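Hi again,

Forgot to attach this to my earlier email, sorry! This is the prediction with adenosine-5'-diphosphate bound. I've pasted everything inline since the attachment limit keeps bouncing my files.
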Amino acid sequence: MKICVFPGSFDPITKGHVDLVKRAYPLFDKIYVAVGENSVKKTLFTLEQRMTWLTQVFEGDDKVSVGTFNGLTVNYCKEVGARYLLRGLRNASDFDYEKTISQLNNIIGKNIETVFLISRPEYSHFSSTIVREIIKGKGDYKPFLPDNIEIQY
Ligand code: ADP
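Structure tokens for the complex follow:
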């Protein structure tokens, strides 16, 4: 069984995240989309809200399970039996950041491999950070979020 974890803040989940998971389908038997609870990062949406959206987006999808974890991503991987991590690359700054994390995880996770997918061009400018700014400004978030997500202003 090839099991992977797709970790993130998902604050909120965007079409870019969903596209990445869909493109990873042929590569894995099971994909855990997991919200890492980060004590330092201040999020716009509560963990509960982010989890509700993840559950909604991947409902009825046998290959995907949603979850949360505290602490190290590699410990969560061990818990669910995953030997692979999934991450997306949109640009060179993603690469610089991800390279270090992936090398560290490979050491502390005892050979856990991170699989990177380059974002589709139509999503490479999508980020949760930008979407949060749009939402804070009460702008039109619809082009960026999965179709079934509604936010009341
Ligand atoms: P984190 O806080 O760990 O960066 P995010 O929720 O922002 O979590 O992102 C999780 C993963 O999804 C990261 O690997 C990021 O590169 C990837 N990702 C985010 N947006 C996109 C996108 N538009 N296209 C492809 N990958 C993306």
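The CA atoms of residues 15 and 147 lie 9 Å apart. Residues 3-144 form a domain with the Rossmann fold fold (CATH 3.40.50.620).

That should be everything now.

G.
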